[in-house]
C-alpha cells in the first residue's frame, strides 16, 4: 500500500489556461482569484468560496478548479497557505512530510497551526473585503483540516476532500454544514477514520454528508489522471457534489433563515410603495400584506401573574427563538435588506437602527468587526445629547457628560478580541413584548416587526431587556 507521503505528492497536472489573476492578501500572502464570467447565468453576489489547497498550493490544477467554481457563479479565492513553499509533483521519494510540515523546505518556514491559521484568517478577511456576506470554503488534503478549524473564524459552510490528519474534536466543533468527500484507498483518511468522522459530525448536530468513491486514491478530487476513466468520473462527481452542497447550504440570508429556523413569523404575501390604496386620497402609500396571526401582543403583567406552567412554556419558546437566531452566523455586521436586483432574497446591507432613524442619521456600510459596531452604538447614544435642551441645568449637563464618559469604558469592556472578527449572529433588535403574539395560554404564535433584523456581534446578542429585569413590567415596551 502506498505511503501517506506518496499519496499526498502524486497525481497528474491538468491542461488548460487559467482565467483568473494573482493578488496579495494582507500585504504578504499570495492568492489567486477567479470571478464568474459575464456569460454565467447565475452569479452568487453575496456568497464566495475560499479554496484551501493541497500541498501543491497555488498551481495549475488549483487555478483551473477555481475557474470551474467561478463558472458555477462563485468568486473563488485560492490561498497560499504554505507561504510560497509548496511541494513538487511526484516528489514523495525526496520529501519527509512530517519534517516539511514542522519546519518547511528551508527549515525556517513551518506549516503548523501557529503559522497557517493567520494566513487562513487573512484569507477570510479578504473575502469580507470583497463584499461577501457568507463564505464557503473548500479544502483538499492538508487544506481540508483548516476548513474545519476555521468555521469559528467566519466560514459558513464547508466541503473537504481526502483530508489529512483530521481530529474528531475538530469535527465535533464545526458550526455549519460540512460535506466530506473520501477515497476508498486512502492511508491518510482510512475507513476507521471515516467512521469516527461520522460519529463526530453527528455530535456536531450540523448538516453533513460523507461520500466515498471506490477505486480511487487520496488526491483524486484535485489530481485525477484524465486518461483513467474511473478517476475522471470520481473527480467530476466530487466537484459537482461540492457545487450542489454550496448551492444548498451557502445561500442568501433569507433562504438560510427559512431553511434553518422554526421561528413563527407571518408569511409575507406582497409589499411595495407608491400605491394608491384609497379612493379619497390623492397621495400614494406603502403597504405590506401578510398572513394573519391569531392572538394578541404579549402583556407583561399577565406573564408575571400567570401560573408557573404557562410561564415555563413561554420562556421555553422564547429560548428556542433565541437559540435559532444564535445559530445563524454571518461574516459581516449589517441589516437584512431588499435585494437591489429585485429578486425575493434580501442581502446583508448597511446597518440600520431605530435610534439612527429617530435621529435621522445616514446609514453606514456593513461593519467587519465588533469594535466598529460598538463604536457606532456609542456614537448613537452620544448623538441623543447633541440637540440643545432649554430647561437643563449645569448639574444635569455634568451628570450626562459623566455618564457618557463612564459608558465609553463600559462599551470598551464589551469587546472580546477573540470574537472581534466574528462570528456575527442574527438578532431581531426589536423583540419588545408587543412584537410577540401569544394565545390565551401565553403560547407564542408569532413574532412581528422584523424590519430592523441585523447580524450583530456575539457579545451583544442578549435576551430583550424586559425579560432580564432591565425594563419596567408596567409598560409593554
Automatic annotation (TrEMBL):
Superkingdom in the source lineage: Eukaryota
Domain (Dienelactone hydrolase) ranges: 31-249
Domain Aminoglycoside phosphotransferase: start-end pairs: 262-454
Disordered: region residues: 1-21
InterPro entries to which the protein is assigned, alphabetical: AB_hydrolase_fold, Aminoglycoside_PTrfase, Dienelactn_hydro, Kinase-like_dom_sf
Biased composition (Polar residues): 1-12
GO molecular function: hydrolase activity
Annotated transmembrane regions: none
The name this protein goes by in its record: Dienelactone hydrolase domain-containing protein
Organism, scientific name: Metarhizium rileyi (strain RCEF 4871)
